[in-house]
Write a sequence for this structure.
């Protein structure tokens, strides 16, 4: 199974989660502007949440992406609140489904730092949860 992890991270927190997922999946993390390299069976796609949305590069990447490129997309996000990350993942999932993509109902969210909030997050526990989530999703 060919797996890819795509990530947009301004402050590095979301990249920590992406790296944990990629380590579990046995692949590297690709940034949003990295070249598409053939079809994948499973794509983990994530970003930090900024003003209620994933980073602009995520939406630009989605515009270039073809439904034939990936079998299933699994979303992940970091945000000041879990509720904000979940809502953002749900919104992006709806957008992807409208474009014909197969998006899993489950997504991964964890706290991310913003100004003085969650300064130590994601922490080792979050990273471990991300790896466990990736393992579970690959076994689905």
């Amino acid at each position: 199974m060919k797996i890819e992890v795509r990530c947009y991270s301004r402050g590095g927190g979301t990249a920590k989660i992406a790296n944990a997922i990629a380590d579990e999946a046995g692949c590297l993390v690709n940034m949003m502007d990295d070249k598409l390299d053939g079809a994948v069976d499973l794509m983990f796609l994530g970003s930090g949440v900024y003003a209620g949305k994933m980073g602009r590069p995520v939406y630009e990447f989605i515009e270039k992406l073809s439904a034939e490129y990936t079998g299933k997309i699994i979303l992940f996000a970091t945000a000041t609140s879990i509720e904000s990350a979940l809502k953002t993942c749900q919104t992006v999932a709806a957008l992807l489904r409208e474009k014909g993509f197969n998006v899993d109902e489950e997504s991964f969210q964890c706290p991310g730092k913003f100004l003085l909030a969650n300064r130590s997050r994601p922490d080792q526990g979050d990273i471990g949860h991300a790896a466990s989530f990736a393992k579970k999703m690959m076994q689905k």
Observations:
- The beta strands are 3-8, 29-31, 40-50, 53-54, 70-79, 108-111.
- The CA atoms of residues 41 and 71 lie 5 Å apart.
